[in-house]
Amino acid sequence: MLLIECPWCGERAETEFSYGGEAGIARPPDPDVLSDAEWADYLFNRSNPRGAHRELWNHAQGCRRWFGVERDTVTYRIAGSFRLSDGSDNREG
Amino acid sequence: MKKYSAFSLIRNALSHNRKWREAWRSPEPKSDYDVIIVGGGGHGLATAYYLAKEHGIRNVAVLEKGWIGGGNTGRNTTIVRSNYLWTEASLLYEQSMKLWEGLSQDLNYNVMFSQRGVYNLGHTLQDMRDIERRVNANRLNGIDAEVVNAEQVGKAIPFINTSPDARYPILGASLQRRAGVARHDAVAWGFARAADARGVDIIEQCEVTGINREGDKVTGVETTRGTINAPRVGVVVAGNASVLAAMAGLRLPIESHPLQAFVSEPLKPVIDTVIMSNAVHGYISQSDKGELVIGAGIDAYNGYGQRGSFHTIEHTMQAIIELFPVLSRVRMLRQWGGIVDVCPDACPIISKTPVGGLYFNCGWGTGGFKATPGSGWAFAHTIAQDRPHELNAPFDLERFTTGALIDEHGAAAVAH
Amino acid sequence: MQPQRLPTGGRIDRSKPLSFRFDGRKLEGYAGDTLASALLANGVSIVGRSFKLRRPRGIVGSGAEEPNAIMQIGKGAHAQPNLRATQVELYEGLVARTTKGWPGARFDLGAINDIFGKVFSAGFYYKTFMRPKSWWHLYERFIRASAGFGRAPTETDPDHYEHRNAHCDVLIAGGGPAGLSAALAAGRAGARVILADEQDEFGGSLAGAKRNIGDAPADEWLRRTVESLAALDNVTLLPRSTVFGYYDHNFLAIAERCTDHLPEADRAGVRQRLWRVRAKQVVLAQGAFERPLAFCNNDRPGVMLASAVSQYIRRYAVRPGRRAVVFTNNDSAYETAIDLAEAGSSVVIVDSRADGAGSLGERAAKAGISVIAGHIVTDVVGRRRVRGVRVAGWSGNPSYLVESSIHIDCDLVAVSGGWSPAVHLHSHAGGRNAWDTERHCFVPGEAAQANVSAGACNGKWSLRECLREGIESGRAAASRCGFEAPEIDTPSTSEGHYNPLQPLWRVPADAEPERCPKQFLDFQNDTSVADIRLAVREGYRNVEHVKRYTALGFGTDQGKLGNIIGMAVLAECLGKSIPEVGTTTFRPAYTPVAFAVGAGESVGDLYDPVRKTAVHEWHVAAGAPMENVGQWHRPWYFPRDGEDLHAAVARECVAARQSLGIMDASTLGKIDARGRDVVEFLERIYTHNVGKMKIGRCAYGIMLGEDGMVMDDGVMARLGEQRFYLTTTTGGAANVLAWLEAWLQTEWPELEVFLTSLTDHFSTIAMVGPNSRRVLERIGCTIDLDKDSFPFMAVRDAELGGYPVQLFRVSFSGELAFEINIDSGSALEMWKTVMAAGEEFGVTPYGTETMHVLRAEKGFVIVGQDTDGSVTPVDLGMNWLLSKDKDFLGKRSLARPDCLRSDRKQLVGLLSSDNTVLPEGTQLVEAPGAPVPVPMCGHVTSSYMSACLGHPIALALVAGGRARKGETIYAALPGREPLPVTIAAPVFYDPKGERQHV
Description:
The complex is a heterotrimer.
Chain A: E1 3-6, E2 10-13, E3 18-22, H1 36-43, E4 52-58, E5 66-72, E6 78-82
Antiparallel strand pairs in A: 1-2, 3-4, 4-5, 5-6
Chain B: H1 6-14, E1 35-38, H2 42-55, E2 60-63, E3 79-80, H3 87-101, H4 103-107, E4 118-122, H5 125-140, E5 146-149, H6 150-156, E6 172-176, E7 180-181, H7 184-197, E8 201-203, E9 208-214, E10 217-223, E11 226-229, E12 232-235, H8 241-247, E13 255-264, E14 274-277, E15 282-286, E16 292-298, H9 310-323, E17 331-342, E18 349-352, E19 358-362, H10 372-385, H11 399-402, H12 409-412
Chain C: E1 13-22, E2 25-31, H1 35-41, E3 48-49, E4 56-57, E5 70-73, E6 80-84, E7 95-98, H2 112-115, H3 136-146, E8 160-173, H4 177-188, E9 193-196, E10 212-213, E11 216-217, H5 218-231, E12 235-238, E13 241-247, E14 251-257, E15 270-284, E16 288-290, E17 303-305, H6 306-316, E18 323-328, H7 333-342, E19 346-351, H8 359-366, E20 370-373, E21 375-381, E22 388-393, E23 404-409, E24 412-416, E25 419-421, H9 424-428, E26 433-436, E27 441-444, E28 451-453, H10 463-480, E29 520-522, E30 527-528, H11 529-537, H12 543-550, H13 563-574, H14 578-581, E31 593-594, H15 595-599, H16 616-621, E32 626-629, E33 632-635, H17 645-658, E34 661-664, E35 669-674, H18 678-685, E36 697-704, E37 710-720, E38 723-728, H19 733-747, E39 754-757, E40 762-768, H20 772-779, E41 795-800, E42 803-808, E43 817-823, H21 824-837, E44 844-845, H22 848-857, H23 897-900, E45 905-912, E46 923-925, E47 938-946, E48 951-959, E49 968-972, E50 979-984
Parallel strand pairs in C: 1-7, 8-9, 8-15, 9-12, 15-28, 17-24, 18-19, 18-24, 19-20, 34-44
Antiparallel strand pairs in C: 1-2, 3-4, 5-6, 5-7, 10-11, 13-14, 14-15, 16-25, 21-22, 22-23, 26-27, 29-30, 32-33, 34-40, 35-38, 35-39, 36-37, 37-38, 40-43, 41-42, 42-43, 45-48, 45-50, 46-47, 46-49, 47-48, 49-50
Helix pairs in contact in C: 4-5, 4-10, 6-7, 7-8, 11-12, 11-13, 17-22
């Protein structure tokens, strides 16, 4: 069971959180101009790296806030958590 | 290939078992092959076997970074069934089922395919609607399937909790009698031995580190044992699909997650069939050795660690006790995890790619083992003919662009 | 009568004799015994049979490494399969049965397998049982019947289990000399310490040891240390507690056995407890396992680990044999020889090393023990019990062949092949292991988490080193947690000098491994040296392949006994070094853990919480069967006078359409959405034009996934300029809220919107039917309810019968209907008020089934029943809900080629030709008689007998269905001729929608 640091509440057990997948996937501002393939890339394709991964977590059983975590997908070590408003905002990837 | 039989066992026993031949060679990689298969799991080995057997392509190398069958092939809960919801998926899995039914004899290697039946339990009215729908579809597709009620479930499966007072009472189930389990390691070894006998080079401890291309054509791979050339490269590496795709500059609609399982200590026979439940999230069978083989759910996070979190195991133990209260005191002997490559529609990808001569077979998620022979058979066809067989045409990468997904979440929501 | 019990000594309580049964025999032991020590005291030799060859087996070890003494303990609901006798504390009335052998372990017909042992070589089953193909299930039945050990109980577990979460600074696994020292050091520094040990008392190898620590006997040091620890408030001592798994982020799981050691009648409270511990630092001090040696017939009853022999003598005052041969390649077994001699047994030491042992050799000589140095035991004589050994001179040459020229009569062979640190937890944590070329064992390499190994677990054999490493690791762990750790002196111990171990795994014999009697590596699975060699010969060379092909290490001891020598034999076969071959992966559980421990309290009624509405008890009292919907229990129908489902639903439907029905709709998800940008936000979420909604008005809304598929639906109301009230499906409530929050926080943080779940705070009572308005008025409502003042799809705050409510004029039935939203604390009162006021109109409570019929008559869909994740709003005929003026989630996906196909499955109504109620889930085909695989053009999603219409109705998804109204297709009913059905519009009742507007 992972130990995840919520930027607002501190370290909590994984069971308090829900996972939101890869961070930094910005919704295209104007979907209509995208080709089907470009839309599919946004919709389905994921970088799914073996190693460092920036991902979203939600403190579902705590403050209900979404935030980012950088975690290694092999060692599961967490390098740190970040608020989405920190300039490391997921919209900027 | 020396044939295996009871007779050969006795003959070899008389010579103190010193004359057995190796099941497969361990050759040095050649510099050029007609086809390279990346990934020495069940699917990769099956692909090589059917390339040789069905398409006469024998100059094939299977490259495995570790030991063959060491990934999900050797880590799953061995369930084999074909009762999927959508016709596209059903027919693909049914092709696999038909191959399973003669596999031990075809490979001359006992993969212990045991058609002991699989029950998918329904606990809510909606579960039962979904079961009716799926069973009806299966029958029309020529796949054996039946709906059984709670009483029948109780009679067929001793000790299962059919009390109407259970938290999620069992209302009924679907039953596929031809479904069952097999011996996972034997599948890898059997395919390896049979492929090797047809000339395929199985090269272990050979990790692919790059995919070489000229323009939009693949030319071979870089490996920890040097460059190996081939005009056609088939990648079938399950959880590592995205990593290999990235080497070729491709992105896939795949996320890799830990999937855990555990076994009990060996017990005298207590569960004679395979029981799966979506609502009460668990699935269980008993191996021929007596261990209860139990599958847990997928861990939520992306992970290549071949391990997950303990609370996932706890939830599964709760589910198993809910289904089988008598198993409460039975003990977990060993737990482990694999890396499953999860696709958005819970269906696989068996596809050509934008790179000529490069083919991907991935996205089997939690359900790859049952598909092993069928997956290899279809992938071999796709590689040999440079076009998909009609059975795997719907499983093209293109479906994510057109939107023609085959949403099997209903049939595959529970890991299996 | 305990023939092998020594007259004095041991840590047993001779004043408390205990009687127990073993395979039906009544035997006696003492408090403080394990089942294994009691069996040995009673001279029991055969305690089991091996898995494959069914050879008679005796007790080998004294702890978790025991492969043979696998017992069924207790009976009935209390039965516990597969316990190791070495780890079962004896209690009065204990009932033990052996688990292998037919009819029993002492005499087993299955022993015939041993005669054909060469046929049953590694992996033989992969090579046979293939013909005839159809016979596999017969072969399998036979294989299954002969496999397995104990039996699962056949009754429901009567015991309770619990989970306990704990945080600590330092968790110490193992309470031997190193672990105790670590606990003392960390505890005195002030750190919060948990010390867990699998045994009933702390001490590990010290228990019963005859040596001094400082100026006191070891027992005395032990007592004082445990007392000191118990006196520290910051130290939690957990005996009978096994740390069985070391998971990510320093999370460890401990199984505590609370009552298993008590007589069944005395057990109360929690049987076993799972400690889920998050530790800042971990000290691993689980000791080491002694290794056997692989000589011929090394599995015969009476061949034991030397350390186990010592344990039985010292701790339990049991002498496992009177004439012993100690076979060793290292010094430690000399202590066993001395123990045996002191216990009055005759002893001969056979030492593979030409120059024998160090200081212990001198002590052995003083005790009059003869040592045959430079010799090896090659074979064991005796089948059901050791009767002697054959011994050969050996120069250390790793050749396969020697000549056994000496025979020694004996009834016990105490074996030591050296020691292997218990690196299990270190490995669970992700740490690798390194081969120590001096000690000839794997020792923990660099730790992967915040853990350190100390003592024998770290390859330190001497007591002084164990004490010192314990103290150091405890201090270091405490100081890494920020505590100032005082210096503690390592107590003095007398240590002699040791001669190095001689690497020896497979013991040379008079013939090659294939021709000589079997040399066992994994006793439980009958894996022998010849099996490893066969695997290698057949190309199974990776250690994992060898393990899987030969079953080495797959037993219930998880290879604790035989894995290392197995790997050494493999290395020898491959001509590689042991570290090159490596180990298989160590996986939890360290020792087996009951499912119930993992499950904890969450079984039975607590398996998943039941959510109940505020009116639930009323429904129960009214006799309504419940339907599980998500976590909710919802009344399904309200039978009267023995009605079945169909009769009750028919009556309820008619009542609602003709007069007044009442339904508890409280389970619908309710979300308050407000804030500056709430309109903009909801515009992006919902498909319709939210901004055009007027205050005080409701709208039906759907939301799509980004893939364009319908995700959820519900009525929403605009309560203010910047305030909305959203409802969701019962099952979707939590998901929808999470979904909205995710978009708001991760994608559109610039929008100021606040979302609050109101699902539990408010209850919803639906009043349905032409008399609903009249009854509301009778109850007393502060607003005008007539058609013009309070039109269809309006919402108002009001007082109803004196209660503040939010009144909605919405309808999920097509009738004149109102939904009363009321504080849950008053909901039951309001329900009763409506029931009383409606009595003269025959007010009829109805459940989910009638709700489904009423809505299906109107063609209203249930998301999740009429949709399945592959259905777009266009498929449902909801184009009118899709705004062309704005973007919304999922909109782009609707323009993908597959979503534009005209032959997509679309929602239609179906009428059967012969008034059959089509089973839900029925598949539809174009024509009867098509060959398999039969193409399917759709399926029935909802189907009911409509009492109000007098005929069955169904909703279905049919390919291109909307354009095919009036056409006939066929329902493929199992076991029946395909039934013609007619495609119709999905609205069967009041198609113009007049009734809800009155």
